[in-house]
Specification:
By secondary structure, this protein is mainly α. The protein has helices at 2-16, 21-35, 41-52, 58-101, 105-131, 138-152, 158-173. The protein has 2 domains: 2-134, no CATH class; 136-175. It has 7 helices and no strands. The radius of gyration is 18 Å and the shape is globular. The relative contact order is 0.12.
Length: 175
Amino acid sequence: MILLKLFAIFFKIGLFTVGGGYAMIPFIQKEAVEINKWLTKKDFLEIVALDAVTPGPIAVNLATFVGYKVSGIPGAIIATIGVVLPSLILVTIIATFFYAFRTNKIIQAILNGLKPAVIALIAAAIFSLLQGKAIFDIKGVIIALIVFVGVVVFKIHPMWLVILSGLAGFILYMK
């Protein structure tokens, strides 16, 4: 029963979330923390942090981690399939028809309406993480600002900033 529920929830998240993995964070948090209470907010933040340094798409990794936490390896597999399957189906359908309809005014209007929604969902994920105390103190604020400036101003590859942030965390927070 729990595996079916995991699949249904992650299938729904995969089907109705537009904008990629970061846009899925608030949906996954709502389902895993608030509605089903599979995780605490602290657990979820730790999973998101672990996910940030794990290779692969954030939504797939989150689904895998949450599924594993809820029901071990079978849960990880089912949640991952659930979150990936809608994209696989939709991308296959869209790819089949995209070139024929890419200049269609209706399609363009829909896409223009979805772009600001994606930005808002990503902003909501950031807001949610900040409320959950993803940044604990002034050290965390400084790390976040340095990473932000590194990406936006200096165009440093995020991979290097993640590695350096982990090193900074080790240095600053080891007691």
